[in-house]
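Ticket #4471: structure output looks truncated?

Reporter: J.K.
Steps to reproduce: submitted the chain below (90 residues) through the standard prediction queue, then opened the result file.
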Amino acid sequence: KEVRQAIAYAINKDQIMTSAYGSDKYAKKAYSLFAPNTLYYTDDVEKYDYSKDKAKELLKSAGAENLKLRLGYTNGDKTLESIALVIQNN
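Returned output as attached by the reporter:
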């Protein structure tokens, strides 16, 4: 649970909005796996805003400080590539 929370804290959603969409005018920050127009979407979820320090703290307490992840995305979609680069950098 703490590793998943750390990953959520480690993703800078504001930077994604700027890099992939130019601003928050064209897209909203995602806090859920589901899109707002899907059947099981709810806005009543825990919202993890960017905090590199909190992410590191959670990884340390979970014993996963040297965690390595692979990020999969659809190649050829410039928006997804931008998002992937931001996540990789974070």
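Triage note (M.O.): checked the attachment and the full token line is present. The mean pLDDT is 90.
Status: closed, working as intended.
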